[in-house]
Each structure stands twice: as structure tokens, then as C-alpha cells.
């Protein structure tokens, strides 16, 4: 078609218009990626580079599968439901380091690691750190709360996303291959690393990793 257009008197305006449309389409794609990933050179993440260096040698033992981010980058703005029924996103945790964990009652590895996440929250949770465990069961939505009570998990706030949209967002961002999925985010909202699969989050290795993220 471009060959036909090239032989017409209006070829230059038409071809110029096609070029502009292609440029806008490419720009839209880049904008969408920027919204999902954040800007890599964003000033708010500049201080995170030194934290990443502290974390690299600590991804070992029980948390050997934890992938420390290669460079500072804003975490996507995932949202989920808080215990009071309101919607929360990662921006609402600014000022605190967050270990975001997705789990479900149909996921046996998820359930096995929940007591350790509960102990991690009991050990380090407070004004500077929180384990945000988000349940993504889409059926029998009362079952997760009952299971937590039966398992004696009582230190974690009950966050939910019964449409499991947060998992889809994480998968599109390349941060989720299966369940459970965990993402570590610093107080500035910068992604420090992630893990696909379970871990013993109350182990000495995990505690050392989180304490390094906290700078303590």
C-alpha cells in the first residue's frame, strides 16, 4: 500500500500522517510500561541502590530464591481491600517497608508459609515494617478468614482481592510465575526484590534479609 501511496500526489502528507500515528502508538506503549514499572531513574528510588547492594549477599539459605532487583525501580501501584473494606494500594504504605505476599487457601505451599509470615510480622512488624499478606481466593470468600483462625495466624492484617486482579498485575509485570508470590518494597515505594514460591520467612536468613532492608 505504501508503494501505491508513494505514486500519488498526496503521498507526502499521507506518509507523514502514518509516521505520526506510528509514533503516537509507540509512545502510548511506552507510557503504559512506564505507568506499570515506574521510571528507573526516578529520584525517589536513587537511595535504594545502596539497599540493593546490602541485600544481594543475604539472598541465601531459606531465602535463596529471593531475586534482588538489579536496579531501583518504582513498584507498580497494586491495590487490594483492607480489613475495614476500603481499597488500599502500595502508595498508602509509604514510609514503611512492606513484604507483599499473595496467598490462597487452594495453594498448599501458601498455607505452609503463612505461620512463618505471621511470626515475621510478630518479630519485626510495627511503624517501619509490615507483612501485607493478600488473599486471592475467588470462591468461598469466608473460608480464608476461618482458615487463618484455625491455623493460629493472628498477627497479620486480613487483606483480600477476591477478583485476583493483583496476581494478574504481578504476572504482567514479570513478578509472578506461580503461588505464593512475594514482593519486597521499601518506604519510598521502590521494589527491592521478589520471590515466586514459598520461603521460611521466620528463619535467621529471612530475618537478616528484612533487617538489612530496614537498615538495622
How far do the termini sit from each other?
Answer: 64 Å
The general outline is globular
Strand order of the largest sheet: 1-8-7-4-5-6
Number of separate structural domains: 2
Overall number of strands: 8
CATH superfamily of the largest domain: Glutaredoxin
Give me the CATH fold name of the largest domain.
Answer: Glutaredoxin
CATH class descriptor of the largest domain: Alpha Beta
Number of H- or I-type helical stretches: 7
Helix content: 25-40%
CA-atom Rg in angstroms: 21 Å
Task: Work out the strand percent.
Answer: 15-25%
Please give the largest β-sheet: 6 strands, mixed
What's the SSE pattern?
A: HHHEEEEHEHEHEEH
Q: What is the second-level CATH architecture of the largest domain?
A: 3-Layer(aba) Sandwich
Helix-strand makeup class: alpha/beta
Mean pLDDT: 83
